[in-house]
Amino acid sequence: MTALLPAALGAGIGVGLYLLFAGLTGRRALPRLSGGGPAGPAAQRNVLRAAAAAAAAVLVLVATGWVAGAVLAGLVVLLAPALVGGGRGQSKAAIARTEAMATWALQLRDTIAAAGGLEQAIEASAHVAPAAIADPVRRLARRAGRMPLPEALRVFADEVDDPLADKLTVALTAAASSGAGDLSGLLGKLADSAQQEARMLLRVQVSRTSIRTSVAIISSVFVLFAVAMVAFRREYLQPYDSVGGQLVLALVGGVFLFGLWLLTRLAATTPPERLFTRELGDEAA
After folding, report:
1. Which end of the chain has fewer CB within 10 Å, C or N?
2. By C-alpha distance, which of 40, 274, 283, 281 is closest to 157?
3. Domain of 135?
């Protein structure tokens, strides 16, 4: 029974930390199940991260008896992707999506220039669209046959969720609604703009790599040092066994993690605002 109590407390701490993290970041606390189907990859990662945080909290609580240490361990696990990876994955995805939009705009331009209509150009591009936007383009081609093209383009823009997709949607919508005198030229200019934006995003990512590397190194050294101290110099940490020591540990650890979080914010990139947004309806199926 005495061993179950720390485990139960650690599990409760882990669940509480995950709920707090979900509330502060706007994430879903539990996976969204649609029709009993499997959860999405992001929801599954959140659940695994919560389980890992609970396990870390239990391990630290059992090994040291420190409630503050268990809380800090759970927070470290929850923040680990941000501390180690920063926004690298999002930056790479944004660059790939921007380059894909540029390539798709050129594909549409070349198809339209070859005396093809806009709907025919979209349908033809669905088979050769770049991988980053291949699925939205294929769904756009299917919707274009059963709903007005401007409406299908709006759904496409919401699926891609990128300002460049909004600009391209505006141009294609104008061409579908009232005709565009030089749609091929406009698509070419949009493609050039997208390529320049992709190069700019790549430069920004490279310039912030040093910050992400520093955060990853500091975080790793902090965790390794703490584990080594608990494992080999436990007597040095005895002052933290008291209530006052726990308060000091919570304060110091909290300030340290807050500083690391601020560094990750410096390395993060803020995506530009979209031209328009709306909730996807049943037509997005």
Report:
1. N
2. 274
3. 90-206+274-284
